[in-house]
Design brief:
TIM Barrel, eight-stranded parallel β-sheet, 273 residues, 42% helix, alpha/beta, 9 helices
Length: 273
């Protein structure tokens, strides 16, 4: 397994600071979810056509990867259809430019299950977008969020589509927190489709979910990591620290430094060392 952090965790940081942190702290890659004060990457100067190849070369020279671009493309309601498809096309072009193999799309709006998901709309959007992804040699990943944090529902969706350019992004927190699924249940259902993994730790306090640094919550992250390792997973596990949306979370410099050590400590504990 390889380690990454998402730029959702460092709002306000410029690209140079992001790259330096990843290299200095021993990460293998960077997942892109906005940069500085901008969320929509294709509209930023940093990731413009003239800069994209330079960034790709810079990452290769440093031994770093960009495993995934995370979009805000909502595929679950017809009112978002045109905007979502346009966003996916923009991100597919950027992913191809940067050499990123995956982009994340959303089949529900929030982490918690929503009430306005049109499953037929999700299905049709993915059917239309998968060939575009194939042209760019990129895979679209549906995240285990919202109603699709129910891994049985996500597995049924991907099974029905049966497209090699569609896969799953396993956010370890959501199936456990919202549907009471053990990592073993989630992974057993999705293991054939998991291409990328998000790690978040959390606690439920006073009826609310409170995100915590890894090891300070009660999400069974160690079990999930062991399942991935035992299955021979060679992809990325990415820290998704929601600092961009939750300003009072700990600062990224602290959390990014903590994460690789916490992962190693958890894995040693699982191995009985």
């Amino acid at each position: 397994m390889k380690l990454a952090f998402s730029t959702i965790g460092c709002p306000g940081w410029l690209w140079g600071e992001v790259v330096a942190t990843a290299k200095d702290m021993g990460y293998d890659g960077i997942e892109l979810r906005g940069i500085a004060n901008k969320v929509y990457l294709p509209a930023t100067r940093t990731f413009s056509l003239e800069n994209g190849l330079s960034i790709r070369g810079q990452m290769e020279a440093l031994g770093l990867e960009i495993p995934c671009l995370s979009t805000s493309a909502f595929l679950f309601h017809e009112k978002y259809r045109d905007a979502a498809r346009a966003e996916v096309r923009d991100y597919l072009n950027l992913a191809a430019l940067l050499g990123a193999p995956y982009i994340r799309v959303l089949a529900d709006r929030e982490a918690a299950p929503g009430a306005e998901v049109d499953e037929g709309e999700v299905l049709e959007n993915l059917r239309q977008l998968a060939p575009l992804a194939a042209e760019k040699e990129v895979t679209l990943l549906v995240e285990t969020n919202g109603v699709y944090a129910d891994s049985a529902k996500l597995a049924a969706l991907l099974e029905k589509l049966a497209d090699p350019n569609l896969g799953a992004l396993w956010d370890i927190n959501h199936p456990y927190r919202f549907y009471g699924e053990s990592p073993a249940v989630t992974f057993d259902r999705l293991k054939d489709w998991v291409r990328h993994v998000h790690i978040k730790d959390s606690l439920r306090q006073n009826g609310k979910i409170v995100y915590k640094m890894l090891g300070y919550g009660d999400v069974p992250v160690g079990e999930a990591l062991a399942l991935l390792e035992n299955h021979g997973y060679q992809g990325f596990v990415a820290l998704e620290w929601l600092k961009r949306w939750v300003a009072d979370l700990e600062d990224p410099g602290i959390v990014f430094a903590h994460f690789p050590h916490a992962v190693k400590r958890i894995m040693r504990r699982k191995e009985g060392k």
